[in-house]
Amino acid sequence: MPLLAIVALAVITYAFRLVGPLCRGRLTLPPAATVVFADAAAVLLIALAATSALFNGHDFAGWARPTGVLVAGILAARRAPFPVVVIAAAGITAILRLAGIA
Amino acid sequence: LSRDVALVCLADGLVGVSFGATTEAGHLPWWVPVAMSLLVFAGGSQFAAVGVVLAGGSPFAAVAAGAVLNTRLLPYGFAVADVVAPPEHADPDATARVGVDRDDVTPDRTDFERADLDRTSRDRADPNRTAPVRAADANGAIPNRTADRNRAIPNRTVPVRARSGWLIRLLGAQVITDESTAFALRQTDPARRRAAFWTCGLSLFAVWNVAVLLGVLAGSVVRNTNAFGLDATFPAVVIALALPALADLRTRYSAGAGAVIAVALTPVLPAGLPVLAALVGLATGWRPSRRSTTHLASTRTVPHPAGVRSTTHPGSPKSMTHPTTGGSTAHPTSDRGEL
Question: Could you say which of B77, B237, B276 has the minimum Cβ distance to residue A21?
Fold first, then answer.
């Protein structure tokens, strides 16, 4: 991975980050758009979680990881402390793999 | 808050270690993960880009995958724009604008309030909960001397404030992440949103880069991070952070539909695109709510005894600025067009 590629990704990424804060005060988004953007963030987070829980690239990641993430998600929904959620995800996944479940 | 931030930093530190170890295991030069973490600072896209390279993809494809994945930072930027910029409490017009924008997001916030009653009741009891004052309080939590100096000057000139504001914005933009955005969105009060964003963003930047470096160093020791289930921590962290925002039923439907779409498309689309395609899920949650939002908003505001967010109620005197009823119906197409 050449340095130029990293810099290119960094510049593109920074541009995405900067548009919102820069538009602030100059361009006021329609109020509804603000709500949509907040919703969009939540939608993307959940989609990111779902895909990264289930897939390695294009392939199914096996049952261990999604099971661990599912348990962690249930714990999180039940307001378990954050470390419990994270440790449960890693721990259950690790135990399942130890038991031979990919 | 600081406890939650520390825990997120710990969790992301683990992710960072695994990222560093992954690149090391893939025989990439040590400076690749280090430079990426400093300059790109977006875990998902770093994994995606490195994954493409390690899978034999071209650097161009790696950049494209990472960049596409990071387009989600665009709405994040808009969602946290008010806390990235320094508080504009010296400018009455700007203050008014902040007030209006707070109303805009109130429909979502009210559910957060209900979720954390103790916190909001404390906020409600606070007599000084006007936006300018609270924003000034938040400045104390921000390690930024420029902002503090400006606050000390009552009649500072607009250009001076604008210049320091730019610097803060340029700095703050770099620490816009899933986590700092989620932390900011979890808070109802502008000052708390600001403190949450900066505390999380800056700590995460430091922890992430140190962790990636540690991961590179440990890469030769721990060969298989998956054996410890570390790959499951990233989605778990993201879910835990997104959950408070899902208190709104409309958001929940959108997120569910989006997740299904993204998962269904992951086997066939290039990396990064499925997550973007999840935005289509916004339509499912958004469309039916356009008629029912008024109903939802009014029923939601009823249980709040103090009526803190009553400005969102259609019957309130400020209904001319009411966002959910007026705004969403007035700009149904422009919303999606800007995404």
Answer: B77
In total, the C-beta contacts within 8 angstroms joining chain A to chain B are 350
Closest by Cβ to B281, choosing from A3, A7, A43: A43
The total number of residues written for chain A in this structure: 102
The model's pTM: 0.56
Q: Note the ipTM here.
A: 0.82
- Paired with A56 in beta bridges are A59
Among B254, B209, B286, smallest CA distance to B40 is for B209
Q: Which two tokens stand for residue B19?
A: 């990222």
The C-alpha atoms of residue A65 and residue B168 are separated, in whole angstroms, by 39
pLDDT in tens, chain A (102 residues): 789 999 999 999 999 899 888 887 666 666 676 677 667 777 877 888 898 889 887 889 889 999 999 999 999 999 887 778 888 998 999 999 999 887
Q: Do residues B281 and B336 touch, judged by C-beta distance below 8 A? A: no
Residue A81, classed as helix, strand or coil, is coil
Three-class secondary structure of residue A56 per DSSP: strand
